[in-house]
Every structure is written in C-alpha cells, then in structure tokens.
Amino acid sequence: MTSDPEWQARYEDRRQAMVDLQIAGRGIDNPQVLSAMRCVPRERFLAPEMRAQAYEDRPLPISEKQTISQPYIVAYMTAAMQLTGGGSVLEIGTGSGYAAAVLAEIANRVVTVERHKSLADRARKILHELGYDNVEVVQADGTLGWPEGAPYDGIVVTAGGPSVPRALKDQLAVGGRLVIPVGDRETEQALVRITRVSEDEFHEEQLSRVRFVPLVGEAGWQRR
Ligand code: SAH
Question: Does residue 135 contact residue 112 with C-beta atoms inside 8 Å?
C-alpha cells in the first residue's frame, strides 16, 4: 500500500513540509543541502511498517539496534562539512543508507562504511534501486577510515566515539573537514569539526551537543 501513487504523493508533500519546517525553518540555508533533502525519499530507507513516520522530526529504529538519524541532524552535519559541490566524501556509519544518499546528491563520489554486514547489504541494494551509482558501500571498521578512496574533501561520522580516530584525520584532503561526535558513550557527545589546514595542521571546533549510537571499533568503543 505504501508504494501506490497516492502514498507517493503524500510522501512527496510531507518531504517538502519536513524541509520547510524542520530544516530551513531551523536556520539551515545551504542551498545544496536543502535541495538534496528535498529529493531523497527517506521512506525508502525504512522498513514498510515504519514508512508512515518517515518525515517525523526524530531518529527512527532500523535493524541491528541502530537508528536512522533525525533529518535535521543529517542536514546539520552535511552542511557542517561545507562541501563546495563535486569532490569526494567518506561517511562512517551507513546505517540505513539515507545520509549517504543525501551526500551523493552533493558530492561526486561517496564511500560509506558500515560494520554490520546486514545493514551494508540492505543499504547497497536500496541505493542501487534509487540510482545512486556514485556511492560505494563497504563493510568494515570505519574507525580505520577507507584509505583506498583517500584523500576526502569531507568525512562525516554518524556514530559517537571516545576520541577522533587518527586515520580519519590522515585521510582528509588539505582544506577538507571531518565532522564527528566525540564524548561519553551513554549520554551526549560534542559534535566536533576538524579542518585540515595544511599537511600537518588541524583546526578543531565544537559545534553543538548531539546524541548518537556508539562508534564501535579499533579506534572507537569496545563491543559489548
Ligand atoms: N547515517 C545513518 C545513521 C546510522 S547510525 C543513516 O542515515 O541511517 C550509526 C551507524 O554506525 C550504525 O549503523 C552502526 O552500526 C555504525 N557503526 C558503528 N561503529 C562503526 C564502525 N566502527 N564502522 C562502521 N560503522 C559503524
């Protein structure tokens, strides 16, 4: 039922309202981010029984006890990378694949890394169905980055770690930006932006407080 034309039109209306109210309405004015958010069908990244909630202002559960981020957070983190269009982006934490699709609307090339095979497989399939052939979904420990595709103009981590993994800084292009939640595993994290100013010089800023699922891996939290 949720794929019939009447529902499609309803999703389209809700998506535009979501961008107007939750994204533009809260001060995000980057035109590329707004137009990407207007295009990507968030409902397609959810299980059928969750689709009616696709444009609500909150994260939603996916499988493997993970979440699809709140639309505002996806827009905020994407804008925080200050991409200038084109270029390549690395995302750590594919989850549903939704944020990867938003990034693929802006960057020429996106590599997205997910530790859970089932999520990586599912995201790869949906991104392919939607025609995002500029996204590569990799199953690996993203705390080590993905050196094969480096350097990246932007790196975004959609899970919270105890510190900034060295490998991610190393894989940034000069002038590129890394956006990552850093801090306590159970409570809130600080959203940090690191700009690679030169080969060996990095500038770090704290942007806001956020709450993410844990980044689990060699340069992240231990699994438990
Ligand atoms: N960007 C996602 C949100 C995903 S939630 C979306 O749009 O739906 C964060 C994801 O990070 C989870 O799927 C989790 O399994 C994954 N993750 C956690 N630690 C990771 C690691 N070390 N490497 C890759 N993925 C990781």
Answer: yes
Superfamily (CATH H level) for 59-210: Vaccinia Virus protein VP39 (3.40.50.150)
Q: Ligand 1 centre from 120 Cα, in Å? A: 9
Query: 17-36, pLDDT tens digit by residue?
Result: 999 999 999 999 999 999 99
Residues touching ligand 1 (Cβ under 6 Å) are 66-69, 92-93, 95-96, 98-99, 113-116, 119, 141-143, 158-159, 213, 215-217, 220
- Nearest protein CA to atom 18 of ligand 1, as residue: 215
Q: What is the pLDDT of residues 80-120, one digit of tens each?
A: 999 987 899 999 999 999 999 999 999 999 999 999 999 99
- Which atom of ligand 1 is least distant from the CA of 215? 19
Query: Domain coordinates of the chain in residue numbers?
Result: 59-210
- Rounded to an integer, what distance in angstroms lies between the CA atom of residue 88 and that of residue 82? 12
Cα dist from 128 to 11, 97, 125, whole Å: 20, 11, 5
